């Protein structure tokens, strides 16, 4: 089996999970989208849990790389923090999808333990990045950075959830602007 089939399956599974969650992952549907037989999906991923792990892990790894890119491209840590909501906004711009991790977190009780681990890793990566950026920008002391980072992560994910539920990207932007105006997000 071709390695590019595996990548195509992961890409299709990511799109599906961002629209329908873990419960929406169906091997036949993924195979049809990729243009292969369902047996080929099973060749790369023996079961749904293995596929869920691979998709969730790839997702948080990709987001970690995106966060690093934001840090490297921004002029300073405060500019990085200003760009943070872009990651969540991008999902909404892509057919009103939402963060794969947020969707799977909503299904948390029904996820296999191995998938739960990868879903938690996404939140941990985000909170760690935010914590480092908040401290580097001098917004908070290191002792307070994890709490503030968690609040920002939850607020931005919540803004995405509200905007998705209304299919209204401008609502996301409005909420982010309010977070900045009230001081939750550095301006």
List key phrases describing it.
0% strand, 187 residues, mainly alpha
Can you walk me through this structure?
The chain has 187 residues and is mainly α. It is 77% helix and 0% strand. It has ten helices and no strands. α1 packs across α4 and α4 packs across α5. The chain is elongated and about 55 Å long. The chain starts with a helix and ends in a 5-residue tail after the last helix.
Can you give me a brief rundown of this structure?
With 187 residues, the protein is mainly α.
Annotation, overall tally of beta strands: 0
Shape: elongated
Task: Work out the oligomeric state of the chains in this entry.
Answer: single chain
* H/E topology pattern: HHHHHHHHHH
For the CA atoms, what is the radius of gyration?
A: 17 Å
Q: Considering DSSP H and I runs of 4 or more, what fraction of the residues is helical?
A: over 70%
Mean pLDDT: 95
Low-confidence stretches: none
Strand content: under 5%
Structural class: mainly alpha
Summed up, the helix count is 10
Largest sheet: none
User: First CA to last CA: what distance?
Assistant: 50 Å
């Amino acid at each position: 089996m071709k390695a590019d089939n595996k990548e195509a399956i992961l890409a299709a599974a990511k799109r599906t999970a961002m629209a329908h969650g873990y419960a929406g992952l169906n091997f036949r549907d993924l195979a049809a989208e990729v243009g292969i037989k369902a047996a080929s999906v099973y060749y790369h991923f023996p079961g749904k849990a293995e596929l869920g792990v691979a998709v969730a892990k790839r997702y948080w790894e990709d987001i970690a790389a995106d966060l690093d890119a934001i840090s490297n491209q921004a002029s300073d840590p405060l500019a990085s923090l200003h760009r943070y909501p872009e990651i969540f906004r991008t999902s909404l711009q892509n057919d009103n999808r939402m963060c794969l991790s947020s969707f799977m977190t909503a299904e948390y009780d029904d996820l296999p333990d191995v998938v739960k681990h990868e879903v938690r890793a996404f939140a941990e990566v985000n909170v760690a990045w935010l914590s480092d950026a908040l401290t580097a920008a001098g917004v908070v002391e290191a002792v307070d950075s994890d709490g503030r980072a968690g609040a920002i992560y939850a607020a931005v994910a919540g803004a995405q959830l509200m905007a998705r539920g209304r299919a209204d990207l401008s609502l996301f932007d409005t909420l982010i602007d309010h977070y900045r105006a009230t001081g939750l997000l550095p301006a």
